Amino acid sequence: MCLKFESKGVLHQVLATCTINIVNYAHGAALGWVSPFLPLLQSEDSPLETGPVTVEQGSWIGSILCLGGLFGAIVYGYLTEKIGVKKSIASLCISNMSFWTIVYFGTSVYHLYLARFLAGVTGGGVIVTFPLFIADISDSKVRGALGSILALAGNSGILTMYIVGDLLSYRTVPVVMISLPTLFAILMTLIPETPQSLLKQRNVTQAEQSLKFYSGLKSDQECTPEFKQQFEKLRNFILNSKLQSDRLQLQDFTSPAAKKGILIGIFLMFLNQFCGVFAILTYAVSIFSESGSTLSPGTSAIIMGAIQIVGTIASFIFIDLAGRKVLLLISTYGTGLGLTCLGVYSWLRAQSVDLTGLDWIPIASLSLTVFLFCVGLCNIPFFVLPELLPAKICNAGNTISMISITIFSFISLKILPILLEQIQLHGAVAIFASTCFIGGIVIALFIPETKGKNLVSPENV
User: Fold this and answer.
1) Are 145 and 134 in contact (CB under 8 A)?
2) Where is pLDDT greater, at 193 or 320?
3) Average pLDDT of the chain, as a whole number
4) Which residues form the Major facilitator superfamily (MFS) profile domain (predicted)?
5) CA dihedral for 430, 432, 435, 439, sign (positive or negative)
6) Pick from 57, 70, 47, 161: which is nearest to 124 by CA?
7) pLDDT value at position 221?
8) DSSP per position, 11-68
């Protein structure tokens, strides 16, 4: 069955998606916080009473976020089933507010460990709940575009932090940023829970009202027989899926469709992290200091953050035109190519080769890398999962994939500062670029196109 949405319904879907992404924007700022402030924390002017942060401590500040993400993915995978998707998303303001509060009052590196862990909880919740929310409320024709807002909001938050971190003091930033989760908490009271979550909770009347909202219908008079028929089909589908999920067994995960969906999900999460772009963005200022760019590290990071936005907008435009697989291939091979350019320049510089007049290459190659990453690898893996997984194990399979990305993210963030110290920038980049080229082959051979797939259909049960 394919629900038909009026144009006003699409507007409601866009407004709801933008509302939930306020906390994602705030989370992006929390992700980007490390880049401008880690060099300060490692300097003699460190604002911490415990003194300058060491390289080892800095790697923990960067990576402990992923342990929080692991915890958040598990917790929010459970909460979405128990209290619903929208309520789970609304609660994300708590951990994000806690991050900014601890950063402001924190006086030791251990306080920052806790703050980054809580920021990770927010991220784990975002990657588990947002794809489910968008899959529940959106028409298949705009699902890809709405999913791209996830990356656009997060990347905008990172860019904002690069700029704000370059302009404002360490203690001023959290005071400004805590306004975002506050606004989010207020606006979340204005959008309804998804029809699917309400049906799972047996709230049939509220589910029908929710579907009216996301379909753009104001009153019962606007509810055509076709709408009522569609609602009954949705109701029967969800209740049937609920009964099946109540009897979820091991063999449900061993069917060919389930195994393929879960393996593809885990692989895409691995590729998303071990292409290296997220780790590079996290340590952007330090990376540019290592690369030999003549621009200041802060300015270079801001430029790269702006390129992220351009790439995400390109994904927003083309994802429902070109399809998921095509953009994934372009993104994966393009990311590998950009990293290769940076690695070759870094290696030549380490060999004391005269590179006069070529100091534009680091910012150009990283800009290309980030742009092409944002076109596909940045966001497609997250919302393509509900299009790949059978409905019966969709929530469980999605949670497994999200747990896997937090583990991969922890490893990549933890090892990058160590790799930079042991094998230098060109060695680290060589590992990431190789992952991209091998990953592109896997995508071409094994990952199907899911553009326009109907999520509410018998074959997806």
Assistant:
1) no
2) 193
3) 85
4) 16-451
5) negative
6) 70
7) 54
8) HHHHHHHHHHHHHHHHHHHHHHTHHHHHHHHTSTT-SSTT-SPPHHHHHHHHHHHHHH
